[in-house]
Amino acid sequence: MESIKIKGDRQLDDNELEEVIASKQSPRLLGLVSGVIYDYEIFDRYVLERDLERIERYYRARGYYRARVRAARVVLKGRGAHVTILIEEGPPLVLGRVDVHGIESLAPSDVRRLLAEVTSQLPLGKPFDELAYKQASNELSRGLADLGFAYAKVSSNADVDLPHNFASAGFWVEPGPKAVFGEVRIDGLGPLPEAPVRRALDIQPDKPYSQFAIDEAKRALLDLGVFSAVSIEPIMGAVANGGAPVRVPLQVRFERAKLRSVHVGGGVEADSLKTDAHAVAGWESSNFLGGFRKLRLEAIPGVVIFPTRLPNFQRPEHLLPEMRLRAEFRQPGAFEARTNAVFRSQASIYPVLLSSQQSSSAPVLGYRDLRASVGLERSLWKFYGALSHNVQVNSPFTYLGTRDPDLGTVVISYPELYLTLDLRNDRVSPHKGVFVSVDAQFAGLGGSARDVKLQPDARVYVPIARRLTLAGRGSIGMLFPQNYGQTVADNASTGTPGTADRPTWVRDIQLMFLRGFFSGGAGSNRGYGPREIGPHGVVPFYNPGQTTAAQAASCAPDNPNRSSAICDLPLGGFSLWEASLELRFPVTGPLTGALFSDASDVAPYLVRFRFDRPHLSVGLGLRYETPVGPVRFDLGYRVPGLQTPSAPDEGVPTKTLGLPIAASFGIGESF
Length: 671
Known about the structure:
By secondary structure, the chain is α+β, with helices and mostly antiparallel strands. Helix content is about 15%, strand content about 45%. Among the domains are: about 5-90, membrane protein fhac (Ubiquitin-like (UB roll)); about 95-175, membrane protein fhac (Ubiquitin-like (UB roll)), CATH 3.10.20.310; about 180-255, membrane protein fhac (Ubiquitin-like (UB roll)); about 420-445 and about 460-540 and about 565-670, no CATH class. It has a 16-stranded antiparallel sheet, with helices on one face. A 3-stranded mixed sheet has the order 1-5-4, covered by helices on one side. It has a 3-stranded mixed sheet with strand order 6-8-7, covered by helices on one side. β2 and β3 (about 35) form a beta hairpin. It is globular. The chain starts with a strand and ends with a strand.
């Protein structure tokens, strides 16, 4: 089976119909060659005949009762069969009326809620969809259970008027008596303790019955990390006469997961700043010291191959070792049944490479980075919140060359509040839904920096067809520094770092590197390399010992010996905006593609979003599905005329093969 083409399907998508038939096109390696790695699919005319019936039945289920498959043309070429299926859809069967009976005695607010749940699934004036019809009945039952009607019964019926292409749906409800929770019975724990399980369940006898409470309890038990599956089933007994609410016991069953695990792996990263290779090794216990406490340890050793980088892959001259050690301890049920206390620590050493054009005379800097945080986190329905206090200590050193005498250790201490609302249908490869997050940091409880840093982010996923997704992302960032940043602002307005003494200049640039906003790269604007968008200028500690005046003179615009590798390094900014639009589509098998457009800017001014500097890039991406998420490759092109006006604070982005393009690799979608 070399190819299957479906024509005439204007209302439904090709991929949607291909999923309901048994005949399959032979998969092609990278979408080009069949019979390599993947087995051929065999053409069977009897299977094809049944597939035509399946297509018609599927159309009826989607509201197109007059749909007919007019023909299935088969062309044989050599060993290959090419099939074309012709469809005549006909007019849709429109839903004109929806009635819900038996809820009149409920509170008006409850009636409105139940009706909204039904009409959200069955909008009037749209084709009558059988799957949505069944889902509406399920949502009605669930809504009644959320209101405490555990014994509610819902029946439904649909009338179809084919001559007029009109459908009506009706639902009949018997709410039954109100219910409360009864005894909670637990099976399947084995040697595991029961007390923390009941604490996470947080369901007390004689509390009002609610399906929402049951779902939240199930999620809380899965979040403990010691169960691979959890079921909570109500035990429905006989209904006694009388006015007292009926008690409904619950039966909780588990499938235990492994309490300890070891993971190993590795990876290679290449971009316009660096090329590195690293390994990953970790150990995790989900019942450390009992009580379902979780301890995770991880080590990521690696090496940066310097100065090898995209796109020209220079000859390696030095190997710069790097290392990251992480530890995380999680205490469930801290202060409240479903609130976790979390302790994290991290120790790292890594090179700081700011430019793809680093001067051969500049030192290669590195940081010893120590971080620790303690906080609380809590989930409720689709909401997640974390409040923590964080301390990081950054101590600079040099891999090569001499360290600037004014460059010293920096301590940053800040509380952080992180909130999310996740309404996506899938976290790894979302097809529809919304994700919103807010990150707020307040530095100044000790340490070197005092500032407020805010970054809200929103992502929207719209299903265009069954396997066609339009994804959008928008984010802004605002930094309000109180005791640093003046030299960056001076550089933006005058092209020079100002009159600050050299230690203050170095300190400002160092704090902006750690706290400021940057844009560009695989998870940002994909037509640029990392940190290429935003204010650029002189970074003094890449020229140790040189005075402020001497550095300003050597980087003056009219200096014939001016070096971009020294004078046009990223400084960070105070205001950020980013926007992305992406169309995701299937290619073949596990291979999918994406057309994207990214725009962003970083400004050296407070709360100033420069939309006249869009830095617009467009491009094409490929994703290959793996068990750990899609492996992603993106190639972005910077659109001429839609970048930025000529300005002294803008850097010069890297070109690849002489073209204004950038390539990026990663695991997982860009957003």
